[in-house]
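Our consortium's second objective concerns turning raw sequence data into structural hypotheses that experimental partners can test. To show how far this objective has progressed, the report includes one record in full. It was chosen at random from the queue rather than selected for favorable results. The single chain below, 253 residues long, was entered without modification.
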Amino acid sequence: MDKISHMTDPRTLYLDLISKVIVNTIYGDPNDNEWLDRVYDPELRQEGRDWPQVAHSMAGIRRIENTRELCERAILEGIPGDFIETGVWRGGTCILMRAVLEAHGDPGRHVWCCNSFEGLPPPDPELYPVDAGDVYHTYKELAISLEQVQANFACYGLLDERTRFVKGFFRDTLHKLDAECFSLIRLDGDMYELTIQALEALHPKLSSGGFVIIDDYGAVPSCARAVDDFRAREGITAPMEVIDWTGVWWRNA
């Protein structure tokens, strides 16, 4: 009886459906990554290893479920603060964050979507030598406009004042955010520069008991280096939990 009740709970059904739509495991749009066959592979989509042609996130089901779980924990445990993602692509993970607030009837939090909306910056090897030779700035498919991301929110009926869109490179925007604190910060910046800038600007505003999610830790060595450097410098010893082949998270003390 408990299992049936859980499965038919409207909140659960709503968030389950939102998650499936965001990564498009329903219609299964083909991969758009030139290094892989341009077909829909459910195993790759589950793990977030392809670049979907249509889906609003490339995070895959496991990382989407992790974001949902930690957002819900922040609400249910009363951890103060907004949700934020740095590096939003088509906006899918932020759409999920906003959907969680809607499902739980949480009126006080905001979702912050921080992105250049013009793609990644060229590497600055003088300041961040680990990024030397980085080519992410050449991938035009990563440059999704602010207007398109807002339109994607509107498709779900979730475009409103509860979501704050912050346009610009992180070095110019993150330290200026008018947010008191965060209960969850999710970083998807790929590069050392973007990862370390986000941690330096946002981690001091992370509430006790709040969550840090790193999307690219396993996939991008320069991202992992930035995380390791920051944790060592700040004396962060909270264990990093593995989400899948690339995503990790930890909880703030």
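The partners drew two points from this record. The two ends are 38 Å apart (CA to CA). Residues 1-5 have pLDDT under 50 and may be disordered. Both points have been shared with the crystallography group to help prioritize constructs.
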